[in-house]
């Protein structure tokens, strides 16, 4: 599909909130890593057919948690409330008896477009608890970018293991998307999207299993 900036891309992003794939999170045996959505909140957390998103799942290689969002995008020159949006995701992660895991990195795929002087920024933090930040991912986009996909990754700053003997823990991912339209009165167009349906965007937390 050809993506036109703002008009077509915004319409597709809004309509795309109903097109996420089904989650396979509930089918993990007790001897494997598992994940489910415990809670979400924020202006960028949409729902699809009454179900909360994003949809988390264990990656096919069993080495990560994939997170796919619906309707998560910042855009301008629509009303200012859409220029900065956030989605805070609390995941329930289960793991085998006698094992633990670390979150070793984060990986991102998204879509961005900035006209003239407009800019955009993604800021994400993931952690086990408020006092245990594991990593921060910050990506800034300059002006005059045509509509395009982008990807990036960041190694975790703290390789803190999940609690041994617990068999489950929560991992929280806080993500904020912001667009800056540039100087008034000639505010320029911009979009930053993590919307899966239209832009095949997602975030992924790399997982490494360890013995206790």
From TrEMBL:
UniProtKB keywords: Signal
Extent of the signal sequence: 1-27
InterPro entries assigned: DUF4360
Pfam families: DUF4360
Domain of life: Bacteria
Protein's name in the database: DUF4360 domain-containing protein
Species, as recorded: Pilimelia terevasa
